[in-house]
Amino acid sequence: MGGSGVRNLERRYRTLLRVLPRWYRRDREEEMVGIFLTERDDDLDLEHSWPGWGETWAVLGLAVRTHLAAGAALTSVPAKVVWRGEVVRALGMLGLLLGLYYATSAVVQVFTLFGGPEAVPWWRVLELAPFVAFPALLSGRRTLAKVAAGAPALLSVVALGQPGPAVLMWTVFQLPSLVTFACLCLGFHREAPVPPAGRLLWWGGGAVTLGVVGGVAAGTGLLLLGLVTAGARVFAFVRGDAVFGRALSLFALLQLVPVVLLAVAWDEVVMSRAVLAVLLVLAVVLPVRRRSKAAPQVG
C-alpha cells in the first residue's frame, strides 16, 4: 500500500480510466472506481489483482464512444468532441465511397482488360465487398458494414508480407482506404447515428459512375480522385459544411502521400501530377468555413 492509502488495485483501475476523456472522468471516475471495487475487500486481492479483460474492453469501448461522442446517452459533451466525432464519421463514409469507386473500377477492368471473370484470381472477389458494406451501414447494420469494408483492407495488410518494392508502393496507394476504414470502425460505434440514406445514395451513385470512368480510362484513377476531392472541397466550403470540409481536407492529405511517392520514386515531375499535388495541398490548407463578418457597431 502506498503512503496515500490507495491500494494497488484501485491505482490500476484509475490508470485504466485515463483512456477516458478528462471531461468524462471529472463526473464519473469516483463512481466507476467504486463500482469496480465493490465486493473486492480481500487484502491479497486489493494488492496483487489487476482489472479483468472484460472490464478493460468495456472501458476501451467507452473511451471510443466518449472521444468520438454521439448519442443521447452522453450529456455535457464539449462541442469540439462532438465535432471530432462527426469528422471521423464523415471520413469513414468517404472511405466507403472510395471502396465503391475501386470495386466498380475493378469490375469494369475485369471485362475490359482481362476478358472476363474466368481470368481473374478468386480472391479478388473480396474487392466487391464495398457493395455490401455501403447499404449495410445505411440500413444500420454496423457490424456487417465493418466486416465487409474490412475485406479490401485485409488484402492490403496481407500484401505487406510479400517481398518486393512494387507491393510496398501498392500498399502506400491503399493508405487512404486503410485510414478511412479505421475511421469507419471507430466512428460508427453502437451509439453513433445511422447515416442519412437519402442523401448518401446519391453520393454512392456518383462513386459508382466515377468507378466506371476510372475502369475504362485505366491509369487515371489517382488524378480522377484528386480532382473530385478538390471539387467536393469547394462544394463543402460554399455550403458552409465545416465537418464535411475538414473530412475532405484529411482525405486530400492521405491522397498526397502516393502522389509524393510517385514523384520521389520516378525522380521526375509530370505536369498532371504537379497540378494534382497543388490542388490537394490547397484542399488541405484552405479554411473549411467562411469568416463571419463582424457585426456593425452602433454608435
Automatic annotation (TrEMBL):
Keywords tagged on the record: Membrane, Transmembrane, Transmembrane helix
Top-level taxon? Bacteria
Q: Could you list the residue ranges that cross the membrane?
A: 91-114, 120-137, 144-161, 247-264, 270-288
Name of the protein this chain belongs to: Uncharacterized protein
Q: Which organism is it from?
A: Lentzea flaviverrucosa
Please verify whether the record's keywords include Transmembrane helix: yes
